[in-house]
Structure formats: C-alpha cells, structure tokens
Design a protein that fits this description.
single chain, about 30% helix, Rossmann fold, alpha/beta, 15 helices, 6-stranded mixed sheet, 2 domains, about 25% strand
Length: about 500
Amino acid sequence: MKIGIAGLSHETVTTLPGFTMEDSFENDCKRGEDVIVSARGSKSSLGGIVDYCEKNNVQLYPILDADGGVSATVLDEVFLKYKQEIVSGFKEISSEIDGILLALHGAMATETIQDPELDLIKGIREAVGYDIPIMAALDLHANIDSEILEETNAIFGFKSSPHIDKAETGSKVAGCMLDFLKGKVNPVTAINKPGLVVPSVFSATGRVPAKYIVERARKYQENPEVLDVTVFFGFAYADVYNIGLSVVVTTDGNKELAEEIAQDLGKFAYEHRIGLTTSDNLFKVEEGVAYALDRAKKAHRPIIILDHADRTGDTTFVLEELIKQKAQKAAFPLFYDPEAVQSCINAGVGNEVEVKVGGKSNNRAGEPVRVKGKVLWVGNKEYIGTGPMRLGRKIKLGPTAIVQAGGVWLQLTTNRKSLIDEDPIIQFGYDPMDFDVIVTKSKTHFRAVYEELGEEIVIIDAPGSGPADLGVLKYKNIPPDIYPITKKPEEKIV
C-alpha cells in the first residue's frame, strides 16, 4: 500500500497588524524524506500518521511539512507557494499512490482566502481526482464547515486541549484510511454548527463545561458503528465566515446515525454556551498578581499565572505588575523580544543591562517595560522537546537571553513560543520548583504539565489580541447570527 503525506499548519490571528511571511514557515520546514525522519516517533499528528503507516508496512511518499506557528494573517503568496508545492507533488505521484493523508490545522487565513485548508484540498482534488481517497487530521481549534466534508473522505480532530492526543489522532486517521482501502469500513460524515464561538481560554477539555461535551462525545464512540466524533471548538480570533464550534461525526456507512449524533452534540454545546464564553474566575491584572504573590507565600508548589490573552508573546501588563509589586522568585519564560535579546548579547553574561522589553508587536500589547538586571545566559538555543505535546520535536528558540531583574527571572527569545512544558526552564539548567510563581502565556496547553506541577492556576484577563470578551474585537466576515458576538447573552442556563 502506498500513501502520500503532507503537513501545513498556521493559526491565524486576523486582528494582529502586519502579515505572516514565508520565513515563519521555512524556519523548520521539512521536505521529502526529512518529513518522515522528523515526524517519526514525535507526538505530532504527522508523527502518528508516519508511525502507524510504517508499522503496517505502508510505503510513504512525503511532500512537505511546514508550520508557521500562531501569528498575523498569512500573505496570499506565501500560502499559494506551499499549496502549489503540495499540489504539484501529489499530482506527480498520483499514478503511484492509493491515498493521501494530510496533517492540517484548520484555522489559517490569508489576505483573500478565508479557508486555505479547504482551498488546498480542492487544489489536490483537481490534481488527483476523486478516485484517490483523502483524509485529514485537524486541530481541535479548526474553523470548518460542510464543504470540507464534501472534498475529503474523512476528517478527524484532536479530542483534547491541551493537545496531548495529536499522535493518537494521526494514528486514527491513518488507520481509517487503511481500513477503507482494504474495504473494511465505509466512512460517512455529518457536521453540525450550532452558531457558537468559544474563546480559547474556555476550551480546556479538562475543565467544565468543555469537559462535559467531550465526555458526551466519547460515550458515542463506544458504538462500534461510530468511527469518530470530534468537537472542533473553533478559533475565535480569525475573522472568517466559518468561525465557531463544529461537531463532526464519522460512522461506518450509517449517515442517519452520524446526523443524529452531530445534532445532539451541537445542541448540547449550545446549551452550555454561557460557560463556554464567560467565567467568574478571571482576575484583573493588579488584583490577580497580588493574589498570586500572596498565595505563593504559603504554597508548597509554584503558583501559575496564566496571561491567556497574549497571542504575540510580548504583552507587558503582567510583567509590569510583577515588577511594581516587587515579586520574588518569579519566572517569566519565553517573553518575545528580539531587540532586547540582542542588547543582552551585547552586554554579555555577568554584566548589568537596562532594556525596554515588550509592547512592540501591536497596540494591544501595552507599553514597553524598562527592565534592569544581570544577564545570566545568552546564546542560540535549540533542543529536542521532552514534554507531552512537543516530545521528539526540535524546538528552536533562536537567540535567547535570561535576565535576573530583581525578583523576576526573565527569559527573552527571538522566536515565539509559549510555555506548555518544563523544557524552557529545565533545558537551561533550572528547576520549576526553584520558583514561587511561574507565568505562562499559553491558553490551555500548559495544563498538561502545570495543572499537576503548580499548586494553583491564577487566570489574569489582561489586555491582548486573544481576549475572553470577544465583544472588544471587530469582525467583518462572521455569520450574522452567532453567539456571543452578534447574538447577545440571555438568561443563564442552569
């Protein structure tokens, strides 16, 4: 059996200024056999695809794997470059392969294309026709609609946020492909979009009410006729026509059952719309930092501050408040500021440095904060991930510096990453338990490690480009009747 594979991923925050350029994708792009070598054994969806296929003696035909991260709108020409490369690659091998497996995100947006993943799949279809089955693994935060189901034979998504099941999802979609090609299953799909947009901070699947929804979906999968049930919570910060939560159900030839489950789960999610869009457990900046520092005095493990609204890695509100309140033994890893890194490199390890950090990416990032302290470390940092989501993947922080600014251990980076595991601390010779307070700008992924490592999570609703209150953002392309942006909250659901 012969399968073509490719990966393309980007989570687009359309409200951010500027554009995402080619270098964001090329930073760690793999082509040809390097795709397999890089993915093999990793906790990525493409890793799951590669491992499953190799265990089942499938011959793989890799095209490329490119991940542009999370940033502003992708330039048309950048997406079209990768689309052309993938499409032409599959066209060239179309007479040799039995199927195509894709590892995509589902929340990319370009200047003029609101659903690039669909556009890519359509391009592949035009090149190889409809006789070759196409299946895809997507992110739990994908924005999709029924059209993608018309162009694919099946799509499976992550079930967990944190995305600790990426590889499992890849294995599952690969298994479905092989069973389909052997004539063992006949996947049919259904989708339901209840008209609901979920801010990322409320999509943690280990927290209610998201937990209730994925548990209900999991119960449906106990039916042997059900091949997959995915609740795509969507990506709230992309201004696109197919924004919002979607339920996609794949059954073995039973369309009626697929429709029934999709409708039930969509209705169930909408019944929990209040809890999926608001919370009473969000702190303002000053009070949140004060609470965290007070709790840290008595805690046996670090207090975790979640600065959830930051999509650029350089909002300064929490950092400024930590310094103002004279925080001690506080760690602030992965703060994005290439200019400040260069200043630290120029100063050198062991020397004092005074720099303005952060607040440079957009008008919601706050003002730059003046930081004075001792340079502890500088260098170009790369390592192989050891955490549950980045296991086996090469992580490139780029030129990096660590500054001890009073009681704040501040790690400055050139490449944007978020703290989702211990690596940004332990790979530099430190232990998370050395700190009383640790700040992360992740949304849900940090929970895979820090829910257990930390004593308490303090969610601070600071300004940023990924706010909990979607009403502060301006949308132009979304549906006219979607909760809570255009359809306002009503009475609370009990």
